[in-house]
Design brief:
The protein is of the alpha+beta class. The protein has two domains: about 270 residues, no CATH class; about 375 residues, Peroxisomal Thiolase, Chain A, domain 1. The protein is built from 19 helices and 26 strands. Strands 1, 2, 3, 4, 5, 6, 7, 8, 9 and 10 form a ten-stranded antiparallel beta sheet that branches. It is elongated, with a radius of gyration of 29 Å. About 15% of the residues have low confidence.
Length: about 675
């Protein structure tokens, strides 16, 4: 582990040392780096360098040889095998490399981008086919579009993510894995005579050597280790600590002596003046938030199988299941954010009820969020922010709703004459546009006209959503996320394991249904959301806390955004929020593998497809059956987490009453 000032000291010392070292293949990993300070924030410096890698087809050979040009102050030196005949140029790759400080793991991290000679960025499938990495790295590796993993490792070896300082899309080796390998070697190099500064710098040198064993480069120390003694470094590309223990002790000792001799021959004078104070916020703002568990109850129809559960009871069941699914001690949860919209009659602090009934510590805090349909998603966003700023390490988030238990309201004042008029709290608090004094469905009709979304297009979407949900349930797609609920009855207990609504559709009647909100309109009972009950919960942690607990994260939070529009245009709001979240993540629509967009009305999804040019095959791949209200916002994140494949990016967007929306981008780990 290194502190930020220690990282700065070691990096600056290495730049100074190797600036005066002769260039050779042996010094390639350590030469050519320059120290860069952040343009706006002091204390966020990093190392960078650019290399040119030329693939040339050697004369009389069928294989490609790799030539590397290191760019030092706008000049480069060609490094090549002298025995190779002069070849003809085939293709050139430009690799921009960075060494940054990982505040989450308190170790260096290696980030890089690779472009072809036209400046086009290479994808992972192209990268693994280059000569930039040693072939042994990929022997047992599994890779997707956005990540490369070694079996049985807690984190991907290679992933796509944002440069922590520049915010630009990059590839990176997971800092935790490379640091493990360095710690193994450093444990053999313990030297009482080293000063603190010397040990820090030697740690960084060892780190460069480990990274160099994955890339097609040789460090100065590795160049001296030949013959059978090189077996230790051959293990490093797998970055598996267990492999070190299997090597004969004598070999480790022999290699350690070589490395130690090299280190002791080199005196690195490090000045304490390189230490400097880092602003207290700079580390906390870069803490990575990950999702380690995600569960949801079945979705019950209004006055259906789940009518006996209050919203907090449903929330408690979802939260208990999420914790139990990963054997997480409830006492670890420091804070809870839970969405709940129709709160009349629910009782004080619905989120607190759900938390304590799920077994959380009484010392934990809980906050109930009301952003209408986006409440559950906003809860997840707030949980992520709490972790990213360093305020919390473990936070639970979710949403819960029981429309079946929404009461009718009577005015407190007695009428002077005549009858009482009861008000439906479900309609007033959840389904009524207070700004235009009309049902939310009328806003949907307005949006359909503005964006020219036909009745047929909406019906087609509704039918497809039901069909996708039916297929998903049949194939067991939701099994990993569902919380079975026991419903007590006069004839015995019933266990509810499936959503209720998807089985109630009659496809033949969908095209002939009357419009529900406007004479001659396009929105019907089939292509708008049914009323329902349900809850969902997610457990978020800092990546460091997940590592400490030995938990494999499901996904990490990449970015999020909120957006506001005219209240009548609320169905259009996701088309504003989603681009904002994508821009923060430096991603485009094409980079997203799966989308989850709320189906309060089918017109919402059709508008998103049209405005954002999203492939319909990527949206709600397992159906939503037009789930409504607060549980939806977190529920679609739960389903998205489980639907994505390792390394893929997913985006979720939810519109909400009042003319707004929330969106979130995650990456499956």
């Amino acid at each position: 582990m290194l502190t930020r000032p220690q990282f700065d000291l070691a990096c600056c010392a290495l730049v100074e040392k190797y600036a005066h070292t002769l260039s050779s293949p042996a010094t390639t990993p350590l030469k050519g780096w320059s120290w860069n300070e952040h343009a706006l924030i002091n204390g966020l410096g990093y190392l960078s360098r650019k290399t040119i890698h030329t693939h040339r087809l050697a004369s009389g050979k069928d294989s490609e040889d790799l030539y590397t040009h290191e760019l030092y102050n706008e000049e480069y030196e060609e490094l090549q095998d002298e025995s190779t005949a002069a070849p003809s140029l085939n293709t050139t790759l430009i690799c921009q490399q960075y060494i940054v400080y990982s505040a989450t793991f308190q170790v260096p991290a290696f980030y890089f981008t690779i472009h072809d000679h036209n400046g086009s960025s290479l994808g992972l499938a192209d990268i693994v086919n280059t000569s930039l990495f040693r072939p042994s790295v990929f022997d047992t590796a599994e890779y997707t579009t956005f990540a490369l993993s070694i079996p049985d490792q807690s984190f991907p070896l290679l992933s796509q993510g944002d440069h922590p300082t520049l915010g630009t899309p990059s590839w990176y080796f997971h800092p935790c894995e490379s640091a493990h390998a360095v710690d193994e070697l450093m444990s053999e190099l313990g030297e009482a005579e080293w000063t603190t500064e010397e040990r820090i710098i030697r740690w960084i040198e060892m780190w460069f050597m480990v990274v160099g064993t994955v890339m097609s480069q040789k460090s100065q120390m590795e160049a001296e280790i030949t013959g059978s003694t090189k077996c230790l470094l051959d293990c490093v590309p797998t970055l598996n600590r267990a492999c070190y223990g299997s090597i004969v002790r004598s070999k480790i000792t022999e290699i350690v002596q070589i490395i130690k001799a090299r280190m002791l021959r080199t005196s690195i004078a490090a000045s304490r003046s390189l230490f400097r104070t880092v602003p207290s916020h700079s580390r906390s703002m870069s803490i990575e938030a990950v999702i380690v568990a995600a569960s949801r109850t079945p979705t019950g129809s209004i006055n259906g199988t789940l009518k006996s559960f209050t919203a907090p009871q449903l929330g408690a069941e979802a939260l208990k299941h999420a914790l139990a699914s990963k054997n997480i001690d409830p006492a670890l949860v420091e804070e809870v954010y839970f969405g709940n919209v129709v709160q009349a009659g629910v009782g004080q602090s619905p989120a607190r009820q759900a938390a304590l009934n799920a077994g959380l510590s009484k010392s934990s805090d809980a906050t109930t969020i009301n952003k209408v349909c986006a409440s559950g998603m906003k809860s997840v966003i707030l949980a992520a922010q709490s972790i990213q700023i360093g305020d919390r390490s473990v936070v639970a988030a979710g949403g819960m709703e029981s429309m079946s238990n929404a009461p009718f309201l009577h005015p407190r004042q007695n009428p002077a004459f005549g009858k009482y008029t009861a008000i439906d709290s479900l309609e007033l608090d959840g389904l009524w546009d207070v700004f235009n004094n009309q049902a939310m469905g009328n806003c949907g009709e307005s949006a359909a006209v503005k964006l020219d979304i036909s009745r047929e297009a909406q019906d087609q979407h509704a039918i497809e959503s039901y069909q996708r949900a039916t297929r998903a349930w049949k194939e067991g797609v939701f099994d990993a996320e569902i919380v079975p609920l026991t419903v007590k009855g006069k004839k015995g207990d019933t266990i509810v394991r499936e959503d209720e609504e998807y089985k109630r559709v009659i496809y033949e009647k969908v095209p002939s249904l009357k419009s529900a909100f406007k004479q001659g309109g396009s929105i019907t009972a089939a292509n708008s959301s049914p009323l329902n009950d349900g809850a969902s919960a997610l457990i978020l942690m800092s990546a460091e806390k997940a590592k400490e607990l030995g938990l494999q994260p499901l996904a990490k939070i990449i970015s999020y955004a909120d957006a506001g529009v005219d209240p009548i245009d609320f169905p259009i709001a996701p088309t504003v929020a989603l681009p904002k979240a994508l821009e923060k993540a430096n991603l485009t629509v094409k980079d997203i593998s799966l989308f989850e967009i709320n189906e309060a009305f089918s017109v919402v999804v059709r508008i998103a497809e049209k405005v954002l040019n999203i492939d319909p095959a990527k949206i709600n791949v397992n159906g939503q059956v037009n789930t409504l209200l607060v549980e939806l916002g977190s529920r679609i994140i739960v389903s998205l987490v489980h639907a994505l494949k390792s390394g893929e990016y997913g985006a979720a967007g939810v519109c909400n009453g009042g003319g707004a929306a929330s969106a979130i981008i995650i990456q499956k780990l």
